[in-house]
Amino acid sequence: EVTINYRHGLPVITLTLPTRSERCRFTVKPMVTTVGAFLQDVRREDKGIEKAEVFATDGSKVSDATLMEVLLMNDFKLVINKTAYSVSPPVKDKLSSEHATEMEDIKSLVHRLFVALHLENHQIRKERELLQKLDHLKEELLPLEQMKARITDSADAKTSRLLWVGLALMSTQGGALAWLTWWVYSWDIMEPVTYFITYGSAMAFYAYFVLTKQDYIYPDAKDRQFLHYFHRKSKTQHFNVERYNKLKDDLAEAEESLRRLRQPLHLRLPIQEISDKD
C-alpha cells in the first residue's frame, strides 16, 4: 500500500520496499521535484528495484519530467517491479483567491531568488565548458592548420609559377610576331595571322565561360586555379577538407557563444571590467 500525507506543507509518500519489506517515507518538494527524480530516489533506496514507473488511471505513462505537484492533483498508479499500487492523493483545502495570489507571488519571488543566486555559478560553469571546448577544438585544428599551411604554400607557388609561364608565353608570342613582321615577312602577310590569333584567343575565353559559367577575370581565374591545385594536393596529402571546415565552424560558434556569455548584460558587469577580463 502507498499512502500520501502532508507534513509541514510537504507531501510524504510512504511505501513498502520490495527487497527489505519495510516501510519507507519519501518527502518531496512538489514545485521542484519531478516524477523521474522521485523514482530515482526510490530505486536508490532499494537496489532490488529493477523497474519503477508511474501511470495515469487511463493507463498512459506519466513522463519523468512531470512535476510532482501536477501528479498529486489526480489519482495514479505506481508500478514497482511487477507490483502495481493504486494511489489516491489526499484532497488539499482550496485556498481563497487572496491566498492563491499570495502563493503565486511567493513562488515568483522564490524563482527570482533562485535565479539570482545560481545565475553566476551557471555562467561560470558554462564559461568553463566553452573554454574547455575551445582548447579541445584548437588542439584538433593545430595539425590540420599546419598541413593546410603547407598545402597552401605549395598551391600558391604552383599558381604563381603558372602565371609567370603565361607571361613568358605571351612575351614569346609578341616577340615572334614582331620578328616575323619586320625581319622575315611584311605586315601584309602577318595581318591575317594576327587576326586569327586574336579570334582564337576570343574563342578560348568564350570556352572558359562555357565551362566555368564565369567571365575570364584574372583574379577569379587565379583563385580558381589555386583551388584546383589546393584540392588536388589535399587528396595526395590525405587532408580532410570537410572535417577541417566542420572544426572551424564549431570553433567560430564556440567563440561566438563565449562572447555572448561575456556580454555586460549577461554578467551584469560594466564594459570596462569585461575588457579587463578579456
Automatic annotation (TrEMBL):
Cellular compartments per GO CC: uniplex complex
Transmembrane segments: 162-181, 193-211
Residue span(s) of domain Calcium uniporter protein C-terminal: 45-247
Keyword field: Calcium, Calcium channel, Calcium transport, Ion channel, Ion transport, Membrane, Mitochondrion, Mitochondrion inner membrane, Transmembrane, Transmembrane helix, Transport
InterPro entries linked to this entry: MCU_C (IPR006769), MCU_fam (IPR039055)
Highest rank taxon of the organism: Eukaryota
Keyword Membrane: yes
Gene Ontology molecular function, alphabetical: calcium channel activity; calcium channel inhibitor activity; uniporter activity
Protein's job: Mitochondrial inner membrane calcium uniporter that mediates calcium uptake into mitochondria. Mitochondrial calcium homeostasis plays key roles in cellular physiology and regulates cell bioenergetics, cytoplasmic calcium signals and activation of cell death pathways.
UniProt comment concerning the protein's domains: The selectivity filter, in which calcium ions are arranged in single file, is composed of two acidic rings separated by one helical turn along the central axis of the channel pore.
Name this protein carries in UniProt: Calcium uniporter protein
Species this protein is from: Chunga burmeisteri (Black-legged seriema)
